[in-house]
Amino acid sequence: MKKLEVFGVSKLKGQIKISGSKNASLPILAATLLSEKKISLTNVPQVKDVETMIKLLESMGSKVKKIRNENSLTIQNNKNMKTKAGYNLMSTMRAGIIVLGPLLARFGKAKVSTPGGCSIGVRPIDIHLEALKCMGVQYKIIDGYVHANAKSGLIGAKIRFPKISVGATENLLIASCLAKGQTILSNCAIEPEIKDLTKFLNSMGAKITWIGKRQVKIVGVKKFKEVKYKIMFDRIEAGTMLIAGAINQNNLKIKAIEPNILKTEINILKKVGAKVIKKKNEINIQGRVKIKNINLKTSPFPGFATDLQAQMMVLLCKANKKSVIKEDIFENRFQSVSELRRMNANINVKGNKATIEGNTIFKGAQVMATDLRASASLVLAALSAKGKTTISRIYHLDRGYEDLEKKLKKVGAKIRRIN
């Protein structure tokens, strides 16, 4: 099993170019199932979840040609695609459920395994299924598979999600593109990755219009056109690197991004004392000797991202006083705490609140990654720890970060991958 060895304390200085977005790539790849036309995607990150989604598409008959050095690929589908998404691939990636919508929209049937992924909380797909039911879908769940059909095709409807759900918003956005008539979705998630999905679908020929902050109108179409599309930057990778820059008086330049998308994170980093300078497509960040404490909670965009909560916890461990993080998205997303404690952190968890005592001097230790974002938090802690830290189960890290250790090495980190 591969591991990371990190030798601290590391002072980071230089430039880091951010990769394409994993969380935008996955629904966009699923959406390609709608079309028989050639689709070219650029700025696609080379991470495990994207590789898994590509394999899933290939298992259903998609022809995918990758140009590795350019982070680009082309996809060509045909009329006789398979409509089954099997367990072996779906079990490692929760985003696989998003193929359900396009399969039903185009073929009127689907057999899709219930999803897997990180064990950070319950992620029911009932919101997806009940919304699709409003569009004429009938379904049963048998032996861990969703058996769904829409014999008369999908029919446009007015749907209000009972709670904000990124996955359900993506699934229904995609499915509605081929539905008969007009669909209006309300109480939608509005993450930047969803807006990127919207831009991609419209570039293919869909008719999608945001008519309110969390309301979108989709008018069904019958065909699409060839398209070449560039995936947006990965805002979670960018946020992770910004937090790294706020630790240990680092001085980093984060490039190939859109700073306005990171407005919430930037404001929080300024509050804790980091010096942040925004430019057109980059952010310069410099940490301070004294890090101020802060209380924050995770919430849907434009709130503070749950995918950056574990990384921010590491920074707040270095604060001068007690901080509190409230996790309002997933009920089991404090799994990194036990491992950070092994590195001398003083963190107490009660329900969905974590109290971070601050003034931590991290010490190197043997630790284990428990999920994707927790693994990133352990890397950040290790960079500021005295001595060597060995992080095992880094396959979690590889699911969502492209060449993380290589990028960190270039800016001064002492980090290496071992078997």
The CATH class of the largest domain is Alpha Beta
CATH superfamily of the largest domain: Enolpyruvate transferase domain
Task: Give the overall shape.
Answer: elongated
Instruction: Output mean pLDDT.
Output: 93
The number of distinct β-strands equals 24
Q: Kindly report the spatial arrangement of strands forming the biggest sheet.
A: 22-23-1-24
Through-space gap between termini: 6 Å
Largest sheet: 4 strands, mixed
Helix content: 25-40%
| Parts with pLDDT < 50 across at least 5 consecutive residues | 117-123
The amount of beta strand, in percent, is 25-35%
Number of helical segments with 4 or more residues: 14
User: What name does the CATH topology of the largest domain carry?
Assistant: UDP-n-acetylglucosamine1-carboxyvinyl-transferase, Chain
Number of domains: 2
What does this entry look like structurally?
There is one protein chain. This protein has 2 domains: 3-18 and 233-418, UDP-n-acetylglucosamine1-carboxyvinyl-transferase, Chain; 22-230, UDP-n-acetylglucosamine1-carboxyvinyl-transferase, Chain (Alpha-beta prism). The N and C termini lie close together (6 Å). The chain has 14 helices and 24 strands. It has a 4-stranded mixed β-sheet with strand order 22-23-1-24. Strands 2-15-17-16 form a 4-stranded mixed β-sheet. It is α/β, with parallel strands linked by helices and 419 residues long.
